[in-house]
From TrEMBL, chain A:
The chain crosses the membrane at residues 6-30, 37-55, 61-79, 86-103, 134-153, 174-198, 218-244, 264-283. The keyword Membrane applies. It is found in: Cell membrane. Keywords: ATP-binding, Cell membrane, Membrane, Nucleotide-binding, Transmembrane, Transmembrane helix. It is a multi-pass membrane protein. One of its GO terms (cellular component) is plasma membrane. GO terms for molecular function: ATP binding; ATP hydrolysis activity; branched-chain amino acid transmembrane transporter activity. Residues 321-566 form the ABC transporter domain. The keyword Nucleotide-binding applies. InterPro entries: AAA+_ATPase (IPR003593), ABC_transp_permease (IPR001851), ABC_transporter-like_ATP-bd (IPR003439), LivM-like (IPR043428), P-loop_NTPase (IPR027417). SMART domains: AAA. It comes from Nitratireductor indicus C115. This is Putative ABC tranpsorter. It holds the Pfam family ABC_tran.
From TrEMBL, chain B:
This is Leucine-binding protein domain-containing protein. Keywords: Amino-acid transport, Signal, Transport. Residues 1-22 form the signal peptide. It comes from the Bacteria. The keyword Signal applies. Residues 32-373 form the Leucine-binding protein domain. One of its GO terms (biological process) is amino acid transport.
From TrEMBL, chain C:
GO terms for cellular component: plasma membrane. This is Putative High-affinity branched-chain amino acid transport system permease protein. It is found in: Cell membrane. Belongs to the binding-protein-dependent transport system permease family. LivHM subfamily. The keyword Cell membrane applies. It comes from Nitratireductor indicus C115. One of its GO terms (molecular function) is transmembrane transporter activity.
Length: 567, 384, 288
């Protein structure tokens, strides 16, 4: 039955589109709704190159992929600046603009007439000119695209993408390169969509702008969401359902004049019903042990863990990170001024002061999340001014957030593994060129992450979803994640707040032990018991100014401070 | 020996005669199944409604009269969702594979262009009665059009303007293949006549707001405005131009029930070039069709209805002619061949029509003028 | 210059139309954060209802408008209670309602076609042409502007002066906090869906009077409403108004020198630049 083969070809095209869109929407969390425009670029590039230049396979396919990938970088630019609903609208706008350019560029694209007579694939005398034969090409295309997507998502890179989706600033804070990840996932997603576009041109032999409207983007999005975002098989299942369902509905007998509208009504109702009853999509994202792609039982000796947990300096205390005369103004408001601090190995430094004193701003300046208006920051005597947070993490400065910012929809161990430094698998090229290295390293990293979890006593919950942890466990996970970065300077933003005494007694020694092993630690804290208990030096800030510096005991005995702050 | 020769002759005669007889005996199907791919949903579903009704009417008439030489005709209606190529191809595949149709009535450029190669490959006769843009002509030699080319209608309109001695032209154009092909024909003609084209403004299909276009046309101070729009935007164009005080002559290429509905009183005096479908007593068939359509659907028959109604009859006649030749005649290629061999068919417009070599039927294009809401025949146009 | 003035007037008139659509959509979106795409076909339903009452049945226009407002409010409330509420209860992630809303859009849009038939519907009212110097406009244009002003003022008063109005504003600011301080968020959600949809019926009737209603008119309505809200800044109704006017003016004045074949993209180019340069919108509630 040619008709069934035809539906199968359509399924292959949409499965490619849904898979590639899933990379963007499901894994990277980038709701850039301009997928049909990239699909169109793929189709038009192939159509133009085959009809006007007569280029042979596979040149048009490769050109389609490259051109769409290039164009997608234009779309990635807004995604670097805006997110959420804004990205939805900006990308919809781009979709409309790209299509309008295609329609108005008559000399190249045939304008509203489109391009007819695109030749199908033929190898010698064997032409893929029937749906049955074309299905071979379509299935090969789907298999290749699915394999690429599978390689990407079941890898450290895929895990990093999900971390970015869960929380972008937290992803930066564990050393992930957001720019690289966004641009590359856009380019790959676009390239895969272009494969579908190129197949479209070959199969239908006609390319016209009507086939790539906003409705098409929405149709593909519906496939991804229906099937389950963040699950590769889900998107394919979604494509299968939304391609086959309308065809099945065609067999419902109905009065001719309203038949096709009634079918669409039923289609819409089915879509809504599925979403109401399975709001997470038909196939949920992989969790628990299934989220991992290597075995976790591999052991690792204590020495390596010790190396990770140790600072690189010797036993003596020396200045590692130094900020001098730092100043930050937002418009007319001065958040912090003339702030100087030196963080030393083996030492715990505390920042205290009322809300709005500028403590978190100080953290943001020291870790590259904000650029100081004035002042100097040195790491081991070298200026790190203007460096991006992920660079600083790589150089050894990492921080946590007051509001935790865990990767809540990932497992506990994933939260830790993703933060481990120097992962070959964070580079896409390595996934395809050095798969064995990536795998071996991943095995080591998994074991290392288990060690770190053991250190904070969370190893029993390694495969639970972070969202299911208790508050105290979440705090411990924050510590574990920060440790995993391997940084020698660790800045904790209120690691103790909201914890009861028992838990405090668990965490305090952890910090103490870290300092003993040579880390330079800085904490923001309100709890005076904690401050006096572990800090070597304390900075008291108020309204952006440093009011006092000294040992906890010195500050506590300052009558003025006692009056204003300690009561 | 003579016996032997006689036997040989007889054997040869039987052989030849037998095979000749086999060739002549038509292989009849139980039912003639054809398809129609129309805009049954989406933003241009008005066309689907009109066309599918006319097809139903024609099919029922033919079957009530005993079918085509005793064999019933069935037309399966499919949807291309108002011009989506992919939907057209899916529909085409269904029609061929599930219903085993040999002929398809098609509409709208993108789906028609996309199914043309399939028609070529599988030998399916295509009959198109909707807007005909230049891109469709020659897409496949399996296709025949019973509607004038949009560009011919445009030419007829500018010729009318020339006859009326009008000067500078502004154009309000549908942003699609049909609109573009009218501009391509009309604008050079008018410039060759020594006039200027002072404004060319585009309207999206399904546009609701064309105030800007109209304001620009008004500011260009044209002597007349060419409305290269189809239903229902032509109505919107007429209404807005008049509301904004553009009181120069308006000449367009369409006037349908929807256009009349939107333009309302502003349509008064609007002239348009169109296929000449006016039911009249001179042409009993046209009258019979128009009356039957109105009785059954409660609306006046549009010429789009007439075209698809006519296409069903063209199909029936082509089947008859192919059947007369006998053999395995129920085949798209045989049907197309039958049309090309004798390209003249009765027309519901009156008289007959003849397909030209490019597959487009030469129909009489006439100028109409709207008076009291109805299009009144003014004159025939001979295109030069 | 005359053309410029005319386009300016057109821009202001269309701006009023978009601003009104933006108000209705923004009220729903800013309060519930649901991208209610089915706002579009509800606009269509309202227009067809007005046509049915005042055109087909011949009752006075004011009855038609009342009917349209009622039907829109019912459909809006109904879609919240049957669809979005069910999704909320089942813990759907943020963008699921958007897709479900698209499903609802498909259903409602085709239902209009099934119930009312295809083809354009118009309603003839006595509309006269006025001119102010070189600028032309019709009485329906005047109604568009007036209806917007009246509704915007009334809505402003409602939001600031009444208990429910203040509850809506509180929820727009911070839904979590609203719940904490004891606001019945379910009731507020129902009210904004009813109110936002009711408001949309007015521009719907205006389109019916001005250009005629068609089954697909809703898409432009919801899109322009959405764009107005985003350009203006989510969470700010003043922003939605400003966004509506900005889009109306740009769409109109932008084509002063640019060929009209680009009409479909011009507002999107502005939108694009707007979001890139000022992602928080014209008026932003985002507080840091």
């Amino acid at each position: 039955m040619e008709y069934i083969y035809h539906v199968a070809v359509l399924f292959c095209l949409y499965a490619i589109l849904a898979t590639s869109f899933n990379l963007l929407v499901g894994f990277a969390g980038l709701f850039a709704l301009s997928h049909a425009a990239l699909y169109a670029i793929g189709a038009y590039t192939t159509a133009i190159l085959t009809t006007t230049l007569g280029l042979p396979f596979p040149v048009p396919l490769i050109a389609s992929i490259l051109f769409a990938a290039l164009l997608s970088i234009v779309i990635a630019v807004p995604a670097l600046r805006v997110s959420g609903h804004y990205l939805v609208i900006v990308s919809l706008a781009l979709q409309v603009i790209v299509l309008q350019v295609i329609v108005n560029w008559k000399s190249l694209t045939g304008g509203t007439d489109g391009i007819s007579g695109v030749p199908t694939y033929s190898f010698g005398s064997f032409a893929l000119d029937t749906p049955a034969r074309f299905l071979i090409a379509a299935m090969l295309g789907l298999a290749a695209c699915y394999w690429v997507a599978w390689r990407l998502t079941r890898s450290p890179f895929g895990r990093a993408l999900r971390a970015m989706r869960e929380n972008e600033s937290a992803a930066q804070s564990v050393g992930l390169d957001i720019l690289y990840m966004k641009v590359s996932v856009f380019a790959i997603s676009a390239g895969l969509a272009a494969v579908a576009g190129s197949l479209f041109a070959r199969y239908f032999s006609y390319v016209g702008a009507d086939s790539f409207s906003i409705n098409e983007t929405i149709y593909i999005l519906a496939m991804v969401i229906l099937g389950g975002t963040g699950n590769l098989r889900g998107a394919v299942l979604g494509a299968a359902i939304l391609v086959v369902l309308p065809e099945l509905l065609k067999f419902l007998p109905m009065p001719v004049d309203i038949a096709d509208k009634m079918r669409l009504i039923i289609y819409g109702c089915v879509l809504m019903a599925v979403l109401v009853f399975r709001p997470q999509g038909l196939l949920p994202e992989l969790r628990g042990k299934k989220a991992m792609f290597v075995q976790t039982d591999a052991e690792r000796d204590e020495a390596d863990t010790a190396k990770l947990l140790d600072g690189e300096t010797g036993a003596t205390s020396e200045t590692v990170l130094e900020g001098r005369n730092l100043c930050k103004r937002f418009g007319g408001i001065t958040a912090i001024s003339d702030f100087s601090i030196a963080l030393r190995s083996h030492r715990i430094t505390g920042l205290i002061g009322p809300n709005g004193a500028g403590k978190t701003t100080a953290f943001n300046l020291l870790t590259g999340f904000l650029k100081p208006t004035d002042g100097q920051i040195d790491l081991r005597g070298k200026s790190i001014l203007g460096k991006k947070p992920h660079h600083l993490v790589a150089s050894g400065v990492a921080r946590s957030f007051q509001d935790l910012r865990l990767f809540t929809n990932m497992t506990v161990i994933e939260n830790v593994v993703v933060a481990l430094p120097n992962q070959a698998g964070h580079r896409i090229s390595n996934l395809f060129l050095k798969p064995l290295t990536v795998r071996a390293q991943e095995r080591e990293n998994t074991a290392l992450a288990m060690q770190i979890l053991r250190f904070v006593e969370l190893d029993g919950k390694a495969h639970e979803t972070a969202a299911d942890l208790s508050y105290a466990e979440e705090k411990l996970l924050v510590v574990a994640r920060l440790l995993a970065t391997g940084a020698e300077v660790l800045l904790f933003d209120e690691p103790m707040s909201g914890l009861d005494q028992t838990t405090l007694r668990e965490i305090l020694p952890v910090l103490r032990r870290l300092a003993e092993r040579g880390k330079a630690i800085c904490i923001i804290e309100h709890n005076l018991d904690v401050i006096t208990g572990i800090c070597d030096e304390v900075f008291f800030l108020d309204e952006g100014r440093t009011m006092a510096v000294g040992s906890p005991a010195e500050l506590m005995s300052d009558p003025e401070l006692a009056e204003r702050y300690f009561k | 020996m003579r016996k032997l020769i006689a036997a040989a002759i007889a054997a040869t005669a039987v052989a030849f005669g037998g095979s000749a007889a086999a060739q002549n005996a038509p292989k009849d199907p139980d039912k003639y199944r054809a398809g129609a791919i129309l805009a049954m949903s989406g933003k241009a579903d008005w066309y689907g409604k009109v066309m599918s009704r006319a097809i139903q009417l024609a099919v029922d008439e033919i079957n009530e009269a005993g079918g085509i030489e005793g064999i019933p005709l069935e037309v399966i209606i499919e949807d291309h969702k108002s011009g989506i190529a992919k939907e057209g191809v899916s529909a085409m595949n269904r029609l061929i594979n599930i219903y085993d149709v040999k002929a398809v009535l098609t509409s709208f450029s993108p789906p028609t262009l996309a199914i043309a190669p399939i028609a070529d490959e599988k030998g399916i006769l295509l009959l198109n009665g909707g807007g005909t843009s230049a891109a469709l002509v020659g897409a496949t030699n399996m296709m025949f059009h019973n509607r004038s080319l949009a560009s011919d209608l445009g030419l007829a309109a500018v010729q009318r303007a020339k006859k009326e001695g009008l000067g500078d032209m502004a154009q309000l154009v549908w942003k699609n293949d049909a609109g573009d092909s009218v501009v391509a024909a009309a604008a050079p003609y008018w410039e060759k006549e020594g006039h200027k084209v002072v404004a060319t403004e585009f309207v999206e299909l399904g546009a609701s707001n064309i105030d800007t276009q109209v304001a620009k046309i008004r500011a260009s101070r044209p002597d007349w405005v060419g409305l290269w729009l189809f239903s229902p935007e032509s109505g919107l164009g007429i209404r807005k131009l008049r509301e904004f005080g553009v009181d120069v002559p308006l000449i367009g290429i369409e006037y349908t029930g929807d256009v009349k509905e939107i333009a309302g009183k502003y349509a008064e005096g609007y002239e348009y070039a169109s296929d000449y479908f006016i039911p009249s007593d001179d042409y009993p068939w046209s009258k019979r069709f128009a009356d039957a359509y109105e009785a059954r659907f409660g609306e006046k028959a549009e010429f789009y209805a007439a075209n698809y109604y006519e296409n069903v009859y063209v199909l029936a006649e082509a089947i008859r002619r192919a059947r007369a030749k006998g053999g395995d005649y129920w085949d798209g290629r045989k049907l197309a061949e039958a049309i090309r061999e004798n390209p003249t068919f009765d027309s519901v417009y009156g008289g007959s029509m003849t397909y030209q070599d490019n597959g487009v039927a030469k129909k009489r294009v006439a100028i109409f003028k709207v008076e009291n809401g109805e299009g009144k025949f003014v004159e025939y146009v001979t295109l030069n | 210059m005359d053309l410029f003035l005319q386009l300016l007037a057109n821009g202001l008139i269309n701006g009023s139309h978009y601003a009104l659509l933006g108000l209705g959509f923004g009220l729903i979106f800013s309060t519930t954060r649901i991208v209610h795409f089915a706002y579009g076909p509800i606009v269509t339903f309202a227009a067809y209802t007005a046509w049915l009452i005042s055109g087909s049945m011949g009752l006075p226009l004011i009855v038609g408008i009342a009917g349209a407002v009622l039907v829109a409010a019912l459909l809006g409330t109904g879609s919240y209670l049957t669809l979005y509420r069910a999704l909320e209860r089942n813990g759907a992630p943020p963008l699921i309602p958007l897709i479900a809303s698209l499903g609802l859009t498909i259903v409602l849009e085709n239902l209009v076609g099934v119930l009312f038939g295809t083809g354009v519907r118009t309603l003839d009212v006595d509309s006269s042409v006025h001119f102010l110097g070189p600028v032309f406009f019709t009485s329906i244009h005047v109604w568009q502007v007036v209806s917007f002003v009246v509704i915007a003022v009334a809505l402003g008063a409602f939001l600031r002066r009444t208990r429910y109005g203040r509850a809506i504003l509180a929820m727009t600011d911070d839904p979590e906090m609203a719940r904490v301080i004891g606001i019945d968020t379910l009731k507020v959600s129902i009210i904004v869906f009813a109110l936002g949809s009711a408001i949309s019926a007015v521009p719907a009737v205006m389109v019916l009077l001005k250009d005629g209603a068609s089954t697909h008119m809703g898409f432009a309505a919801v899109f322009m409403g959405f764009v107005a809200v985003i350009v203006g800044g989510v969470g700010s109704l003043r922003g939605a108004i400003a966004g509506g006017y900005l889009v109306g003016l740009v769409e109109s004045l932008g084509l002063w020198q640019i060929p009209t074949e680009w009409q479909g993209s011009i507002s999107f180019v502005v939108l694009f630049l707007m979001i890139m340069l000022r992602p928080q919108g014209l008026f932003s509630m985002a507080r840091k």
